[in-house]
Write a structure and sequence with these properties.
Low-confidence stretches: none
Distance between the termini: 52 Å
Radius of gyration: 19 Å
Structural class: alpha/beta
Strand order of the largest sheet: 1-2-3
Number of helices: 7
């Protein structure tokens, strides 16, 4: 079995890893976005599909992991379907983000409000679904729209 050091050297000498970091990031963007690559990857724009592909790429080799973890533009699609909303917000900093948030239950409301108030200034796009039968009053809605979002398009 090869040691980690030998594997790292072997991975670094792979032809794809000789590409410039900017080009690898551009390739990762297409993979993560689910750009259809016949016979290789199924196309899927779902948040879980994006996250799965993102994390799969970080497990290919140490170089890819390092590049992906340090490329904020790869972390700008944030979904509350993930328990890692804060992680995505941190890794995408300082870029603006697309946030998808579903308030399925009344208990989801505080977490949603917290994210919007804390990161509203970075929102480029917000997809917010609120299931009305779980809201108790107009105050619930008012909290959801009471945040600053100067970059929202």
């Amino acid at each position: 079995m090869l040691s980690n050091g030998v594997r790292r050297l072997s991975n670094r000498s792979s032809p794809i890893n000789s590409l410039p970091t900017e080009l690898l990031v551009a390739i990762f963007k297409h993979i993560i976005a689910g750009t259809r690559i016949p016979l290789l990857l199924p196309s899927s724009d779902s948040a879980s599909g994006r996250e799965r592909r993102l994390f799969q790429c970080t497990h290919v080799c140490f170089l890819w992991r390092d590049i992906i973890l340090n490329a904020p533009e790869l972390w700008t699609y944030v979904s509350n379907g993930s328990r890692m909303t804060e992680l995505f917000m941190q890794r995408s900093h300082p870029l603006s983000v697309k946030l998808k948030f579903d308030c399925l239950y009344h208990d989801d409301m505080p977490a949603c409000v917290k994210v919007l108030k804390r990161h509203g200034h970075r929102l480029r796009r917000l997809d917010l679904r609120v299931f009305t039968h779980y809201t108790e009053s107009f105050q619930d809605y008012k909290q959801l729209i009471s945040f600053d979002a100067p970059s929202l398009q």
